[in-house]
Amino acid sequence: MFALPWGVRRAACIGVAGVVAALGAFPALAQTTVTAVMHAPLRGLDPVINSQYIVRNYAYMVYDTLLARDAANKIRPQMAERWTVSLDGKSITFVLRDGLKWHDGTDVKAEDCVASIRRWSAMDTMGQVMNTLLEGMTVVDDKTFEMKFKEPTEIALTALSKPSGLAAFMMPKRLADTPVSEPIKEELGSGPFRLVMSDFKPGVQAVFEKFKDYVPRSEPASGMAGGKIVSVDRVKWVTMPDPMTAVNALLSKEIDLIEYVPYDLLSILEANPGVVVKESKLRGNQSIARLNFSQSPFDNKLLRQAALLAIDQKDQMQAQVGNPKYYKLCAAAFGCGGAYASDIGADKVIKGQPEKAAELLKQAKYDGAPVVILHATDVPAFAAMAPVVAQALRKAGFNVQMRSMDWQTVAVSRASRAPVTNGGWSIFCTINGLVDVGEPLGYNAASASGKSGYFGWPDVPAIEEARAKFARTKDPEELKTIATDLQRRILDEVLFIPLGEAYSVSAWRTDMAPPLDTPVAVFWNFTRTGK
Q1: Domain 65-176: which CATH number of 2.60.120.1200, 3.30.420.10, 2.60.40.60, 3.90.76.10
Q2: E strands present in 350-485
Q3: Angle at the Cα of 512 (from 509 to 513), degrees rounded to 5?
Q4: Residue spans in the chain of domains classed CATH 3.10.105.10
Q5: 11-60: per-residue pLDDT in tens?
Q6: pTM of the entire predicted model
Q7: Would you say 200 and 192 are in contact if contact means Cβ atoms under 8 Å apart?
Q8: What class does CATH assign to 282-503?
Q9: How much of the chain is helix, strand and coil, in % rounded to 5?
Q10: Helix, strand or coil for residue 205?
């Protein structure tokens, strides 16, 4: 997944004019155009096979979901008009609401949703657990379909409503029938915006226009649920790799919004009366280091445990964030202070212990096998992460090599199981939104299903058994007990190394009404008065 807030390191300012020249001169903004700098460039467009957050954000513009979560985390209908659970709890029947159309003007049908759920669930970690309980899906008519399960379960409602990870976006059947080994060939959704392909420049800009046939729900917007009222004609995402350039562009009114502001530049914006600066804990995130279980050295559990002991959370958060106001140290695998938070492992996770790590290297008879860290240099938060991890591991005695590249290349490279001597990797660092971290079933970094799982491919049956038990449980106290056991196992096996949590900060021009404070950045239900 992709990191959220920008960190403290930034390139030298190249000037707003340089970026404008690189993008092509900005045309005069229309009355209802919003121009935003997002947290990363948009390149990929398939929200099923690409887990980057910028692709998820794009998908919320173009696609829609059957269900959604409101501000209280309650499951609400979205594309669905209603659902009915059978008396035995083994089947759910969904009925689509009226007025749903794809961007080409054709009607959304139940068969589209069934095909979309099949493709999505093959890739999503919670969807994969759901599939182990699923007996089958049946189209009843054009607006109705049924899901049948082997035993009573609510996992379908939980999975289809989760707002992130891989959210369950609906697409036409002809696209949803695309194998997950291939990207979809069209960008056709039923959401509130459509992507203007003629203006799309991968990695440079993406332009969206209001889908005039979109029929929003009648309920007020709440969280990711309710009516998606689009009050602007166009939204433009532009890429400005240098954070200072983006800040200058906001101050000079060349852009309207920065999704995530670098912490060390906040004071510049806070001093300007034409700009609103707002912190969001909903879009907070957990930084992690993910280890490759499939090859040396981290196919050795002792060496994974040594890596965990070597790293100091405070060093990492200081490099990424700097200001303690915006970060928190904790051992919780599922989020500091969240519903499933636990302090198990805090004695090993928070404070770096390089001497104890070195002892484990001796126990494991570490032979100096190279540890290759994928280092994303084009996103400041990532650029800050890998060097701190590398320094900590070297101090403990690991032979560390950093392989520098842009984030998009990291996203591709982490799928490789090749040896490190042939382009493979040992560690990559990433940042996961708390919206994902708090879902023990949906958090892909917590899965341990081997080759079918998340990058790094840990194969730990006991963890998957605990996750399956979680899927079958309704009692809140039992769920907490299972989550605590999961954390103990995750840290013992070192599925990932928690590096701390940070809160995000956005900024926008005062001639825009405040954007919704949602777990995902959205561009509906706000208006603008200027330009």
Answers
A1: 3.90.76.10
A2: 370-376, 399-405, 427-433
A3: 130
A4: 282-503
A5: 333 343 343 333 333 343 445 899 999 988 999 899 999 988 999 999 99
A6: 0.85
A7: no
A8: alpha beta
A9: 35, 25, 45
A10: strand
